[in-house]
Each structure stands twice: as structure tokens, then as C-alpha cells.
Write a structure and sequence with these properties.
mainly alpha; about 0% strand; 7 helices
Length: about 160
């Protein structure tokens, strides 16, 4: 029964604007109200999910152990599939810039690099997180600077 409700909410959000046109905001308001009613449940489950085994623990409290184990296995498979797709898309993006990159071998090499980092235990290091944060901060600042230069050239262009 719960799966039907989630599916109906998805249909309402995803395809409601096609069917309802200018009245799509009403369907989104209904969805927001329903989610508001379940906010404590979502808050508890989502709060547990980022931790290791959070999905398993949340399901273990509400279902059988076999169901929770199946969900945990599917969650791990989902994480793996997300990693593969992310690596593939990153390499395809690099290929669109540099055409000489072989996509499949570089994707495998990229995943191997991250696998090695996780195996040696650097996956949840605060130092690595700070380096990643500083790199993002630098790249976004550089992007903003280029945008300002571009806009100035466009405005000052005779």
C-alpha cells in the first residue's frame, strides 16, 4: 500500500504539470501537505541514512530481518551503480573536451583510483574533505571571475 502512495506522489509531481497545465501548483501543494504530515518519519529515517548501515537499521526496526538484509544489499548495489555511472559520465565529459581519451579504460582507471583510496582508508578523512572543499571553492571563484570578465567585455563591447 505504501508503494502505491509513493508512486502516486511521484506521478503527481512528475507528470502533474503536463495534465493540469496552469493548475499544476495545486497538485504540488497537495504533495507538500502530505509530506508535511509525514515530516517526523522522514526526518528520522533520513537522519539515519547517511551513517553506515542506516538504511538497514531503519528497516530492521520496521520489517523482518530478511527484508532489511535484502534492502541493505540493494542499497549497496545502488551505490555501486551510482559510482559506475558517475565515473562514466565524468570520463565522457572529459572526452568531449579532449577527444584522445579512451572512455572505457579511463573509467576503469578512475574507479580503481577511488577503490584504492577507500581501501587504504582515506574515504572519510577530514583532511581530504577540506582539500576537496578548497578545490571547489577555488574552481567556483575562478568560474565567477571568468563570468565577470565575460560580462564586462559584453557590456563594454562597442
Amino acid at each position: 500500500m505504501r508503494q502505491r502512495h509513493k508512486f502516486l506522489l511521484f506521478i503527481c509531481i512528475r507528470f502533474g504539470h503536463c495534465l493540469l497545465g496552469q493548475y499544476a501548483w495545486i497538485s504540488l501543494l497537495v504533495v507538500a501537505f502530505v509530506l508535511f504530515l509525514f515530516r517526523k518519519i522522514y526526518g528520522e529515517v533520513v537522519g539515519a541514512l547517511p551513517l553506515n548501515g542506516g538504511a538497514y537499521n531503519a528497516l530492521l526496526n520496521t520489517t523482518k530481518k530478511s527484508t532489511a538484509s535484502l534492502a541493505a544489499a540493494l542499497t549497496v548495489l545502488s551505490y555501486m551503480a551510482t559510482a559506475v555511472i558517475s565515473a562514466s559520465e565524468a570520463v565522457k565529459y572529459a572526452y568531449s573536451i579532449w577527444n584522445f581519451i579512451p572512455v572505457l579504460p579511463v573509467t576503469i582507471a578512475l574507479m580503481f583510483c577511488f577503490m584504492t583510496l577507500v581501501i587504504i582508508g582515506i574515504g572519510e578523512s577530514s583532511k581530504v574533505a577540506i582539500v576537496i572543499f578548497l578545490f571547489h571553492l577555488f574552481s567556483l571563484t575562478l568560474l565567477c571571475a571568468f563570468c565577470v570578465v565575460f560580462l564586462r567585455r559584453m557590456v563594454l563591447k562597442p
